[in-house]
Amino acid sequence: MDMEEQDFPALYNSADCESLKAQSHYFGALRLYLFLLILAALVSFAFPENAYAVIGSASLFLITLGILVWLKVQKPEDIWYNGRAVSESVKTRTWRWVMKAEPYDKDVPEEQAQKEFLNDLKAILDQNRSLSHVLKWTPDLGEAISQKMIAIRANPWQQRLDTYIKDRVDNQLHWYSKKSQLNKRLAKRWFVVSIFLHSSAILFLLYRIKEPSSALPIEVIATAASAVLTWVQAKKHNELNSSYALAAHEIVLIKGESVSVKEEAHLSEFVINSESAFSREHTQWAARKTV
């Protein structure tokens, strides 16, 4: 019995959706801002004495100013970070509930376990009121407690352990490993681009010493190099590669500890320890926005 994304509480699905949307808006706006800066510099270089080109270049800079104002006012990065923190907090609580881990263990009556779980979801929502203007609910987002969650919770502990290993531990391991490799490749790619731009600027400057009257796009290349640096700093490829790789290794160790689960009580302890390790990542997300 697989636990899929749509089987998590509606709060998780809503926060996750809005976080991904805000992330897309943030990087889309930043990408457009940097592209227009380079384009404005290119237009200014290519047509230095053309009045229309000057007006066009000024218009492009005006648009980039508008993008900066939009980013400052709308703060999509805050929605992105907070939405991610909420969705991961809900996911952690959900897995503890379906696995009957403390405080939702088998010694607690089902009605009380459901009530405590719902109260925990309310607490998460109350702590993140800043998301109230973007969080939505539609029938396709599901309920607070899905039928799949109830069905998995009702399984014997051995089946719940198998579900947890496959749908939680292995899922996290695959995600972190994949993201680590992706960020490693992108970090190398942007490093090569940055080296190329800086080398080009140096060569053009040296050539200008020989031919002072030559028209070379040094300012355009410098703007492009700055744009690449800004993009790399925003994406944090090297930082994410390291943190995701470390998380993947930690999850491998977590998976190895599953062999010690011999009874219901051991499962509860294993889930609590695993979720504590997983929660470090979304705690870092919440902290990263203050950096």
From TrEMBL:
InterPro entries: SLATT_1, SLATT_3
Statement: the UniProt record of this protein carries the keyword Transmembrane: yes
Official protein name in the record: DUF4231 domain-containing protein
Alphabetical keyword list: Membrane, Transmembrane, Transmembrane helix
Transmembrane regions: 30-47, 53-71, 190-209
SMODS and SLOG-associating 2TM effector domain span: 9-160, 164-285
Organism: Halovibrio variabilis
